[in-house]
Amino acid sequence: MSIKISQLFLFPVKSLRGVAVNSAELTETGFKWDRHWMVVKPDGGFVTQRQLPRMVLIHTQLTADHLVLSKEGMANLMIPLTPSDAKNSAAILDVKVWKDQCKAIDEGEEVSQWITEAIGAPKTLRLVRMANGHKRPQSKPEQLGATTHTLFSDAAPILVCNNASLDALNKSLNEHEFDAVPMNNFRPNIVIGGINAFEEHNIAGLSNEDYELKYCYPCQRCVVPTINIDTATRHPKQEPFSLLAALNSMPDNKKAPAFGENTIVQKGLGKTIRVGDVLQSL
Questions:
Q1: Side-chain half-sphere CA neighbours of 258 within 13 A
Q2: Which residues of the chain, if any, have pLDDT below 50?
Q3: Is residue 145 within 8 Å of residue 29, measured between CB atoms?
Q4: Going by C-beta distance under 8 Å and a sequence separation of 6 or more, which residues neighbour residue 22?
Q5: How many CB atoms within 10 Å of residue 133?
Q6: DSSP structure string for 48-107
Q7: CA dihedral sign, ordered 7, 13, 14, 16
Q8: What are the distances in angstroms from CA 136 to CA 13, 40, 150, 154, 168?
Q9: Whole-angstrom Cα distance, residue 150 to residue 160?
């Protein structure tokens, strides 16, 4: 079975807008620079579009030296990819991703003010990156493997989604007189073509001569895909949540929608993955 990569996405900041790329480096935590930063409350608890949908209106971009954040009506914010030694040692915060306690570097007051204003948050927010040398605890070793680690992604290092599955969902949405949703609503890292709708759940992963990606378990979807990425408004009937659940539910919960496969890099750390790569199913 021949499968081709049609799109690749990086999400440098958890829950902000992602960026389409032509290639990415495979690392033990997923794509290099993916979910490298995270927005937190003053107490260190993380926030996402689940609580603050307007996060999706902030665009991200990576240059050779900087993370660039942009939002309509505001000056761009430039954050060095490599923090200073002083920041490494002087701005350590305790933060929490779900149940995982982590050490992170605070990006500072100017960044905090910008991101709080851009999101329109009622309380001050801060932007952090994982502290040098800190390894996030593995909360799902039985599913993702004991040696798998991530930065600030929800669980798995990589999410792989299937174009045919989105087509099937949008066909159902249209039949119910709802607007179609773009693939960006599901925040995938890798988008593939060449297999039937939801057939991704019946294969073990993907490979070529340079790397091997292992599928671990289907991705259970929350309310984030119901948020319009251009307006930051939630669908009035919370679609495509229920229609997706009817089409493709989690194996152990028929009311929970699944879309995409949570994935780890089995072989090929340090290799480059590219749009157009031809893969074989495992």
A1: 19
A2: none
A3: no
A4: 8, 274, 275
A5: 7
A6: -TTT-GGGGGSEEEE-SSEEEEE-TTS--EEEESS--HHHHHH-EEEEEETTEEEEEEE-
A7: negative
A8: 16, 16, 7, 12, 36
A9: 16
Q: Name the β-bridge partners of 2.
A: 280
Type of residue numbered 211 = Y
Please say whether the beta carbons of 72 and 56 come within 8 A.
no
Cα dihedral 267, 257, 246, 167 sign: negative
Structure-block tokens of residue 182: 């773009």
Q: Compute the distance between CA of residue 126 and CA of residue 39 in angstroms, rounded to an integer.
A: 6
Please state, in angstroms and rounded to a whole number, the distance separating the CA atoms of residues 241 and 172.
12
Query: Which residue in the block uniquely carries the two structure tokens 């389409």?
Result: 20
* Residue 275: Cβ-neighbour burial (10 angstroms; 0-12, 13-18, 19+): middle
- What is the tens place of the pLDDT at every residue in 202-261? 999 999 999 999 999 999 998 889 999 999 899 988 889 999 999 999 998 999 999 999
Residues 58 and 115: their CA atoms lie apart, in Å, by 9
Strands 100-106 and 92-97: antiparallel
What was the pLDDT predicted at 149? 87
Q: What average pLDDT is seen over the chain?
A: 92
**What does the alpha-carbon distance between residue 7 and residue 161 come to, in Å, rounded to a whole number?**
10
